[in-house]
Amino acid sequence: MNTCLAPCPVVFDLDGTLIDSAPDIHAAVNAVLRAQHTAPLTLDQVRSFIGGGVDLLWRRVIAATDLPVEAHRDLVASFMVRYHEATALTRLYPNVAESLGVLADRGYPLGLCTNKPTGPTMAILDHFGLTRLFGAIVCGDSLPQKKPDPAPLWAAFRGLGASPDRPRGVYVGDSEFDAECAANAGVPFLLFTLGYRKSGIEDMQHTGRFDDFAQLPLLVEENVPVT
């Protein structure tokens, strides 16, 4: 049985879980494509590419366009210039701020585990005034490993006071990367069903699911690993 030091850490994914960042990512991608005299992609196309980090995003963009594979590094660099402070079109999902506040008030240490790079992550958290809520923030460039490898999630749990030898907690996310990461880490996974997943809900391993963040505090309490 999973064990968790009380109070139990709750760690979140970012893109597609706490925030709908696809419009900003879409705008930054198309700005780079315009500079390359390449036809723009649709929002739905770009949304479907999100989840595995910037390198994977651009491998998928290149595959969907006539851009040369060898341009990958330069395209990523051009994208990052635009992406670093891209906040204008990003929105919190409804009831996110309120639910984070409820969990914090109830004593749950909160953390973040995302494949998003550190610069854009901190920019968006600062933009929405959420930075102070997270005691541990592990980004896509914080470690050599990225999700679905469990190392970033374990690092987030450890940063919130979980046992260094067998870190435990609850992970909240929206994608196949998140579900696989939680499974690899051996922790409960709560699936936000309105994010960027590509699979059917029943095809994704999860402990609980929700489509409104107002439901999350009770769901966390019902799924905290017991000692």
From TrEMBL:
Catalytic activities: 2-phosphoglycolate + H2O = glycolate + phosphate
EC number of this enzyme: 3.1.3.18
Catalytic site: D13
Pathway: Organic acid metabolism; glycolate biosynthesis; glycolate from 2-phosphoglycolate: step 1/1
Cofactor dependence: Mg(2+)
UniProt cross-references to Pfam families, sorted A to Z: HAD_2
Positions of Mg(2+) binding: D13, D15, D174
Source taxon at top rank: Bacteria
Keyword hit for Metal-binding: yes
The protein's name in its UniProt record: Phosphoglycolate phosphatase
Any GO molecular function: phosphoglycolate phosphatase activity
Family: Belongs to the HAD-like hydrolase superfamily. CbbY/CbbZ/Gph/YieH family.
Gene: gph
SUPFAM superfamilies tied to this protein: HAD-like
Function: Specifically catalyzes the dephosphorylation of 2-phosphoglycolate. Is involved in the dissimilation of the intracellular 2-phosphoglycolate formed during the DNA repair of 3'-phosphoglycolate ends, a major class of DNA lesions induced by oxidative stress.
Keywords: Carbohydrate metabolism, Hydrolase, Magnesium, Metal-binding
Gene3D superfamilies, alphabetized: HAD superfamily/HAD-like, Putative phosphatase, domain 2
InterPro entries assigned: HAD-like_hydrolase_sf (IPR050155), HAD-like_sf (IPR036412), HAD-SF_hydro_IA (IPR006439), HAD_2 (IPR041492), HAD_sf (IPR023214), PGP-like_dom2 (IPR023198), PGPase_prok (IPR037512)
